[in-house]
Design a protein that fits this description.
By secondary structure, the protein is an alpha+beta fold. It is about 10% helix and about 25% strand.
Length: about 190
Protein backbone atom coordinates (compact mmCIF):
# COMPACT_ATOMS: atom_id res chain seq x y z
CA UNK A 1 0.00 0.00 0.00
CA UNK A 2 1.47 3.32 -0.88
CA UNK A 3 4.66 4.04 -2.77
CA UNK A 4 6.21 1.18 -4.67
CA UNK A 5 9.68 1.92 -3.29
CA UNK A 6 8.47 0.98 0.23
CA UNK A 7 7.69 -2.64 -0.70
CA UNK A 8 9.67 -3.31 -3.89
CA UNK A 9 12.52 -5.08 -2.08
CA UNK A 10 10.02 -7.55 -0.59
CA UNK A 11 8.14 -8.31 -3.80
CA UNK A 12 11.43 -8.56 -5.73
CA UNK A 13 12.79 -11.00 -3.13
CA UNK A 14 9.68 -13.17 -3.48
CA UNK A 15 9.98 -13.06 -7.27
CA UNK A 16 13.62 -14.19 -7.11
CA UNK A 17 12.70 -16.92 -4.62
CA UNK A 18 9.88 -18.29 -6.79
CA UNK A 19 11.80 -18.34 -10.10
CA UNK A 20 12.85 -21.94 -9.44
CA UNK A 21 9.16 -22.89 -9.45
CA UNK A 22 8.62 -21.90 -13.10
CA UNK A 23 5.98 -24.41 -14.22
CA UNK A 24 7.17 -24.67 -17.83
CA UNK A 25 10.69 -25.49 -16.71
CA UNK A 26 9.45 -28.03 -14.17
CA UNK A 27 7.30 -29.82 -16.76
CA UNK A 28 10.23 -30.02 -19.19
CA UNK A 29 12.36 -31.71 -16.51
CA UNK A 30 11.88 -35.45 -16.94
CA UNK A 31 12.54 -36.07 -13.27
CA UNK A 32 9.39 -34.17 -12.18
CA UNK A 33 5.89 -35.62 -12.18
CA UNK A 34 2.35 -34.39 -11.49
CA UNK A 35 1.10 -35.65 -8.12
CA UNK A 36 -2.41 -35.89 -6.69
CA UNK A 37 -3.76 -35.13 -3.22
CA UNK A 38 -5.10 -38.12 -1.33
CA UNK A 39 -5.82 -37.77 2.39
CA UNK A 40 -3.59 -39.71 4.74
CA UNK A 41 -1.43 -41.39 2.11
CA UNK A 42 2.28 -40.89 1.84
CA UNK A 43 3.68 -41.37 -1.64
CA UNK A 44 4.53 -45.06 -2.11
CA UNK A 45 3.58 -44.94 -5.80
CA UNK A 46 6.15 -42.23 -6.51
CA UNK A 47 9.58 -43.44 -7.49
CA UNK A 48 12.15 -42.44 -4.86
CA UNK A 49 14.14 -40.67 -7.59
CA UNK A 50 11.17 -38.62 -8.82
CA UNK A 51 9.87 -35.37 -7.40
CA UNK A 52 6.50 -33.63 -7.71
CA UNK A 53 5.87 -30.46 -9.69
CA UNK A 54 4.89 -27.40 -7.66
CA UNK A 55 2.56 -25.16 -9.66
CA UNK A 56 2.76 -21.48 -8.69
CA UNK A 57 -0.82 -21.07 -9.94
CA UNK A 58 -1.75 -22.52 -6.55
CA UNK A 59 -0.46 -19.29 -5.01
CA UNK A 60 -3.62 -17.65 -6.39
CA UNK A 61 -3.55 -13.98 -5.29
CA UNK A 62 0.06 -14.23 -4.10
CA UNK A 63 1.72 -13.57 -7.45
CA UNK A 64 4.04 -11.12 -9.18
CA UNK A 65 1.16 -9.48 -11.06
CA UNK A 66 -0.10 -8.18 -7.69
CA UNK A 67 3.44 -7.53 -6.39
CA UNK A 68 2.66 -10.45 -4.04
CA UNK A 69 -0.10 -8.36 -2.47
CA UNK A 70 2.14 -5.53 -1.30
CA UNK A 71 0.67 -3.08 -3.81
CA UNK A 72 -2.87 -3.39 -2.47
CA UNK A 73 -2.27 -3.79 1.27
CA UNK A 74 -2.59 -7.58 1.39
CA UNK A 75 1.05 -8.75 1.59
CA UNK A 76 1.94 -12.40 1.12
CA UNK A 77 4.75 -14.40 2.67
CA UNK A 78 6.01 -17.76 1.43
CA UNK A 79 6.61 -20.54 3.94
CA UNK A 80 8.63 -23.65 3.21
CA UNK A 81 9.92 -26.64 5.14
CA UNK A 82 13.63 -27.16 4.79
CA UNK A 83 14.24 -30.65 3.42
CA UNK A 84 15.32 -33.25 5.96
CA UNK A 85 16.79 -36.26 4.21
CA UNK A 86 14.53 -39.31 4.59
CA UNK A 87 11.97 -37.61 6.85
CA UNK A 88 8.39 -38.72 6.29
CA UNK A 89 5.75 -36.67 8.13
CA UNK A 90 3.50 -38.66 10.44
CA UNK A 91 0.08 -37.03 10.11
CA UNK A 92 -3.30 -37.97 11.49
CA UNK A 93 -5.49 -40.14 9.29
CA UNK A 94 -7.37 -38.11 6.72
CA UNK A 95 -4.92 -35.18 6.76
CA UNK A 96 -3.16 -34.14 3.56
CA UNK A 97 0.23 -33.40 5.14
CA UNK A 98 1.83 -31.21 7.81
CA UNK A 99 -0.43 -28.25 8.58
CA UNK A 100 0.63 -24.67 9.26
CA UNK A 101 -1.24 -21.90 11.06
CA UNK A 102 -0.14 -18.30 11.58
CA UNK A 103 -1.30 -15.98 14.33
CA UNK A 104 -0.05 -13.16 16.47
CA UNK A 105 2.61 -14.33 18.93
CA UNK A 106 1.37 -12.38 21.95
CA UNK A 107 -2.09 -11.23 23.04
CA UNK A 108 -1.37 -7.71 21.80
CA UNK A 109 -0.35 -9.12 18.39
CA UNK A 110 -3.49 -11.25 18.19
CA UNK A 111 -5.57 -8.18 19.09
CA UNK A 112 -3.88 -6.20 16.31
CA UNK A 113 -4.68 -8.96 13.78
CA UNK A 114 -8.33 -9.37 14.76
CA UNK A 115 -9.54 -7.46 11.66
CA UNK A 116 -6.85 -8.82 9.33
CA UNK A 117 -7.97 -11.42 6.83
CA UNK A 118 -5.48 -14.31 6.81
CA UNK A 119 -5.66 -16.77 3.92
CA UNK A 120 -3.48 -19.73 3.03
CA UNK A 121 -2.72 -20.76 -0.55
CA UNK A 122 -1.18 -24.18 -1.17
CA UNK A 123 -1.41 -27.23 -3.44
CA UNK A 124 -5.09 -27.68 -2.57
CA UNK A 125 -5.64 -25.04 -5.29
CA UNK A 126 -8.10 -23.00 -3.23
CA UNK A 127 -7.73 -20.45 -0.43
CA UNK A 128 -8.28 -21.56 3.15
CA UNK A 129 -8.87 -19.24 6.11
CA UNK A 130 -7.87 -21.80 8.76
CA UNK A 131 -4.62 -23.47 7.74
CA UNK A 132 -2.11 -24.27 5.02
CA UNK A 133 -0.87 -27.73 4.05
CA UNK A 134 2.51 -29.03 2.92
CA UNK A 135 1.28 -32.01 0.83
CA UNK A 136 2.48 -35.45 1.89
CA UNK A 137 3.60 -36.36 -1.62
CA UNK A 138 6.63 -34.05 -1.40
CA UNK A 139 8.07 -36.34 1.27
CA UNK A 140 10.41 -37.98 1.91
CA UNK A 141 13.17 -35.81 0.52
CA UNK A 142 15.79 -38.17 -0.95
CA UNK A 143 17.96 -35.65 -2.83
CA UNK A 144 15.78 -36.07 -5.92
CA UNK A 145 16.94 -34.26 -9.01
CA UNK A 146 15.26 -30.83 -9.38
CA UNK A 147 13.41 -31.21 -6.06
CA UNK A 148 11.40 -28.13 -5.09
CA UNK A 149 10.27 -27.65 -1.51
CA UNK A 150 6.50 -27.33 -1.20
CA UNK A 151 5.35 -23.81 -0.36
CA UNK A 152 2.43 -22.35 1.52
CA UNK A 153 1.67 -18.71 0.78
CA UNK A 154 0.05 -16.76 3.59
CA UNK A 155 -1.80 -13.56 2.74
CA UNK A 156 -2.39 -10.94 5.43
CA UNK A 157 -5.14 -8.71 4.07
CA UNK A 158 -5.19 -5.21 5.51
CA UNK A 159 -3.01 -5.66 8.60
CA UNK A 160 -2.97 -2.64 10.92
CA UNK A 161 -0.85 0.26 9.71
CA UNK A 162 2.01 1.74 11.74
CA UNK A 163 1.97 -1.12 14.26
CA UNK A 164 4.72 -3.72 14.61
CA UNK A 165 3.10 -7.17 14.79
CA UNK A 166 4.97 -10.36 15.70
CA UNK A 167 3.64 -13.25 13.61
CA UNK A 168 4.11 -16.86 14.70
CA UNK A 169 3.58 -19.66 12.18
CA UNK A 170 3.46 -23.17 13.62
CA UNK A 171 3.78 -26.41 11.61
CA UNK A 172 2.31 -29.61 12.99
CA UNK A 173 2.75 -33.30 12.33
CA UNK A 174 2.99 -36.08 14.93
CA UNK A 175 6.76 -36.22 14.44
CA UNK A 176 7.39 -32.49 13.91
CA UNK A 177 6.82 -29.49 16.12
CA UNK A 178 8.30 -26.45 14.41
CA UNK A 179 7.58 -22.75 14.21
CA UNK A 180 8.92 -19.55 12.72
CA UNK A 181 8.29 -15.99 13.77
CA UNK A 182 8.69 -12.73 11.91
CA UNK A 183 7.68 -9.11 12.23
CA UNK A 184 5.25 -7.21 10.04
CA UNK A 185 5.01 -3.42 9.85
CA UNK A 186 2.76 -1.72 7.31
CA UNK A 187 3.57 1.94 6.56
Amino acid sequence: LGDEYTYLKYSDALLAFTLQYDYGKQVREQSLIECQMEPGKASPEISPRKSCVFDLEWANRCNIFRAFGYSDGCPCVALKLNPIYGWLPDVEEGKLGPEVRCTGKHDVDRDLLVHTGIKYYDARDRPDENLGVFPHYYFPYLAQENYNNPLVFVEFCMPPRYALVTILCHVEAKNLNSSVEFYMLMD
